[in-house]
């Protein structure tokens, strides 16, 4: 099922991780949904924290970029991203950083949003 549905394909590894690491610890079937939601939020939060550290963008601003993308279905303009970076970046490196951050936004949305 995961391999046929493109939206689920990116979520596959995280769902497998939840099944393998967390499902055996859950006693009641009623607790599965709650445990899954907590796991999903924790993984999303860890992913965002990691990306914000790598890219030197405050996590709140990264969240804002993702929220805007979800609302408008448009990636942020390059200058918006450059304005968020907390360190000076040479003009030759900017486009690579912009592309990387845009890809990260799409990836997070593809993986963590239903």
> Which sequence of SSEs, written as H and E, runs from N to C?
HHHHHH
**Helical content (DSSP H or I, runs of 4+):** over 70%
User: Structural class, judged by helices and strands?
Assistant: mainly alpha
The overall strand count is 0
Overall mean pLDDT score? 87
**3D shape:** elongated
In terms of DSSP E residues, the strand content is under 5%
What is the number of domains? 1
Largest sheet: none
- The N- and C-terminal alpha carbons lie at a distance of 16 Å
User: Number of DSSP helices?
Assistant: 6
Low-confidence stretches: none
What is the radius of gyration? 17 Å
Architecture overview:
The chain is an all-alpha fold and 114 residues long. It has one domain (6-112). Helices cover 72% and strands 0% of the residues. The protein is built from six helices and no strands. It has helices spanning 6-9, 12-21, 31-55, 59-72, 78-84, 91-112. The longest helix is centred in the middle third of the chain and has 25 residues, at 31-55. The two termini are 16 Å apart. The relative contact order is 0.12.
Feature tags:
single chain; 114 residues; mainly alpha; 72% helix
Could you provide a short overview of the structure?
This protein is mainly alpha-helical and 114 residues long. The protein contains six helices and no strands. It is elongated and about 55 Å long.
Which secondary structure elements does this structure contain, and how are they paired or packed?
Blueprint (H helix, E strand, L loop, with lengths): L5 H4 L2 H10 L9 H25 L3 H14 L5 H7 L6 H22 L2
């Amino acid at each position: 099922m995961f391999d046929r549905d493109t939206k689920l394909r990116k979520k596959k590894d995280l769902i497998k991780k939840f099944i393998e690491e967390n499902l055996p610890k859950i006693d009641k079937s009623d607790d599965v949904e709650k445990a899954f939601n907590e796991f999903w939020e924790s993984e999303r939060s860890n992913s965002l924290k990691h990306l914000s550290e790598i890219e030197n963008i405050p996590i709140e601003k990264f969240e804002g970029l993702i929220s805007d993308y979800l609302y408008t279905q448009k990636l942020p303009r390059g200058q918006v991203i450059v304005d968020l970076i907390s360190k000076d970046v040479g003009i030759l490196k900017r486009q690579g950083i912009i592309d990387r951050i845009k890809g990260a936004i799409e990836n997070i949305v593809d993986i963590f949003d239903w």
